[in-house]
Amino acid sequence: MFSLADFEAHAGAVLDKNAWDYYSSGADQEQTLRDNKEAFRRYRLRPRFLRDVSQVDTKVQLFGGEVAFPICVSPTAMHCMAHPDGETATARACTKMGTCMVLSCWSTTCIEEVAEASGSGLRWCQLYIFRDRQLTRELVLRAEKAGYKALVVTADTPIVGRRLADSRNRFNLPPHLSLANFSNVQAQSSLVIKEHDSGLYQYTTAMIDPSLAWDTIDWLRGVTKLPIILKGILTAEDTEEAIKHNIQGILVSNHGARQLDGVPATIDALPEVVKAARGRVDVFLDGGVRQGTDALKALAMGAKAVFVGRPALWGLAYKGSEGVEQVLKILKDEFKLAMMLSGCAKLSDIRPELVVHESYYNPP
Question: Cβ atoms within 10 A of the Cβ of 61, count?
Answer without folding.
Answer: 11
